[in-house]
Amino acid sequence: MASSASTKSIFPSPLFSSSSSSSSESRSSKISNLSFLSSNTFGTKSNNSNNIKLSCQQQQRCFVVNSVLKTVDQTKQTAQTISDNNVVVGNEKPTILVSEKLGEAGLQVLRKLGNVVCAYDLSPEDLCTKISICDALIVRSGTKVTRKVFEAGKGKLKVVGRAGVGIDNVDLQAATEFGCLVVNAPTANTIAAAEHGIALLAAMARNVSQADASLKAGKWLRSKYVGVSMVGKTLAVMGFGKVGSEVARRAKGLGMNVIAHDPYAPADRARAAGVELVSFDQAITTADFISLHMPLTPTTNKVFNDNAFAKMKKGVRIINVARGGVIDEDALVRALDSGTVAQAALDVFTEEPPAKDSKLVQHENVIATPHLGASTKEAQEGVAIEIAEAVVGALNGELSATAVNAPMVAPEVLSELAPYVALAEKLGRLAVQLVSGGSGIQSIKVVYRSARGPDNLDTRLLRAMIIKGIIEPISNTIVNLVNADYIAKQRGLRISEEKVAVDSSLEQPVESIQIQISNVESKFASAVSEGQISIDGKVKSGTPHLTCVGSFGVDVSLEGNLILCRQTDQPGMIGRVGNILGEQNVNVSFMSVGRTSRRQKAIMAIGVDEEPNKEALDNIGAVPAIEEFVFLKL
Fold first, then answer.
1. Active-site annotation holds for 352
2. Residue 25: helix, strand or coil by DSSP?
3. What is the structure's pLDDT at 297?
4. Is 371 a catalytic site residue?
5. 30, 11 in Cβ contact below 8 A?
6. Are the C-beta atoms of 23 and 526 separated by less than 8 Å?
7. Rg for the chain (alpha carbons), in Å?
8. What distance in Å separates the CA atoms of residue 610 and residue 30, rounded to the nearest whole number?
9. pLDDT of 325 above 80
10. Closest C-alpha among 118, 114, 113 to residue 163
11. Is the separation of the CB atoms in 474 and 436 below 8 Å?
12. Are 430 and 554 spatial neighbours (Cβ–Cβ below 8 Å)?
């Protein structure tokens, strides 16, 4: 980012400057501050001014989780080619890479929005090569979406869709850092996975797999394959989420006593299903059957190990249709050999496919299937459609209900806050342009005035958009709801929020938003109130408005570009400035004047459709009654 030699970056690295004071400009000094989105250029009004226009250096438009601001870049892009597939990518359509087989119904949904590239069995290197020009990636469990993939995406990759439930093959931390939304398809295969779990349970209890193989080998060994009944036995469901709760419901129908362990499951939901929530140790020590439905995390990795097996009932039976890594497979073999575990029915493994000589797969008391939990025709089609719709929604700027690495914001809240999202971002953009380049931003306070109670006002999206507005104009960082708080923390920004109750309509979620930036110098001294830069905004008739700059009240529609002038309140000022702009063919969209008192100091806010050239701005600064001015680009 370019800047004049006399200015410092607004965000010193790695930490912001620790001390600075609000400027107190001399009224005899006229300041001309030409502030652009990617510029910290400023200077005093003189014939030797080096103020120059600097173009925005953002590499692409940013993804925001709201239909007001789309993720599909509507600017023209240079057509590019994925050489291996001879697929031309360009113009306005996003590129969606599908790296594992997806049902045709899902592909049809994707093709309505963008260019779909199906490239299977990619090596990590090939994936990184292709991802550099892709907006979205859809995977199943076989593709590892590592930090290198996000780095190769160079900020262009906006969403990763996991066609299924588990997301342990996606580096969520890296995705968040790069502002990439991760979505999954947790509901479409729920029933299929639950049914497969019950199928394995029943097949294991009655030795179906072994008896079938024996009969096909020409043997008739009825006495060898005597099974056990499920009625009256205790089933411990480890993980009471969507699949686990469906397994529990079906097991209850089989006459089993069901207990469950899940530190995050609501007790009332478990009670409603006739299931008792218990501790981990209580579950594994009392169960006759243990069915695993937990995600693979650092906490659950190999949680079923020698120590856990030693606590179980002798002759316990284990079913796993979740993630192979939650079981220490060597420990399970030892437990099977010792008889602690009588049988195991496994659909998932630590390494998939497992080695052909795997002792676990070859064990006579193990039933194994090749990760078939979601493999029904209905589930495959459902997953394809669910993940396709989630990815398309994300590319259209909508926050999917299945987003994994973003806070959940209800659809009705998103709709209600839509105009305030635009207001929040534009206030952030204005605020950062009012900060001079000689000081670093450390502390930002956001004040929301609302008739609603604090618990009825979700400000996460608004806070994210304020961070976006503050950071993006002076960096090439992409900010959205996914990574806003992370980016702010990385840059040392301390953001506090205050909700102030006001007497207004409850139908209006926010009466006004105020941004205060402390301990900084300002390019426009009049924006400083009580020692800090302060601006206020409201939404009027669905349009964002600037309503206060410092202690001056204004009424400015936040559209196009804005010129703020501090002047002596006297007749003819509006006409004089209007003539200067008109002479340079700059169209004025509105003017608003706020003053402290009659014939004293005033702020004139001028909205312009075009960007004034240096001559026009110099001429405005030359007007004797104008003491300072700043040009702001929205």
1. yes
2. coil
3. 81
4. yes
5. no
6. no
7. 31
8. 24
9. yes
10. 118
11. no
12. no
Would strands 601-608 and 561-568 be described as parallel, antiparallel, or unpaired? antiparallel
Angle between helix 242-253 and 190-205 (nearest 10) = 50
In this structure, what are the phi and psi dihedrals at residue 422, rounded to the nearest 5 degrees? -65, -40
Rounded distance between C-alpha atoms, residue 584 and residue 422, angstroms: 30
At residue 334 the predicted structure's pLDDT band, cuts being 50, 70 and 90, is very high
Question: Read out DSSP for 365-428?
Answer: TEEE-SS-TT-SHHHHHHHHHHHHHHHHHHHTT---TTBSSS----HHHHHHHHHHHHHHHHHH
CA distances from 532 to 30, 95, 342, 513, 552 (A): 20, 45, 71, 16, 14
pLDDT digits (tens, 9 = 90+) for 452-485: 887 788 888 899 999 999 988 877 677 878 888 8
Which stretch of 4-13, 289-298, 590-599 has the lowest confidence by average pLDDT? Answer: 4-13
Does the pTM surpass 0.85? The reply is no
What is the residue whose two structure tokens read 């089993």?
A: 256
pLDDT given for residue 634 in this prediction: 80
Residue 406 amino acid letter? A
List the one residue out of 473, 490, 464 whose CA is nearest residue 403.
464
DSSP reduced 3-state for 484: helix
Which residue among the candidates 162, 323, 452, 463 is catalytic per the annotation?
A: 323
Burial class (CB in 10 A: 0-12, 13-18, 19+), 264: exposed
Catalytic residue among 92, 352, 530, 583: 352
Tens of pLDDT, residues 131-188: 999 999 999 988 999 999 999 998 899 999 999 888 889 998 899 888 899 999 988 8
Nearest to 155 by CA among 506, 477, 524: 477
Tokens of 154: 């160079």
Q: Which one, of 140, 578, 34, lies nearest residue 43 by Cα?
A: 34
Contact 51, 5 (CB under 8 A): no
Residue from 140, 162, 371, 452 carrying the catalytic annotation: 371
Q: Which of 475, 486, 517, 545 is nearest to 62 (CA)?
A: 475
Q: Of 317, 340, 308, 362, which Cα lies nearest the Cα of 201?
A: 317
| CA 431 to each of CA 474, 532, 543, 564: distance values in angstroms, whole numbers, following the listed order | 12, 11, 18, 13
3-state helix, strand, coil in the chain (%, to 5): 30, 25, 45
DSSP-derived letter for residue 145 is: B
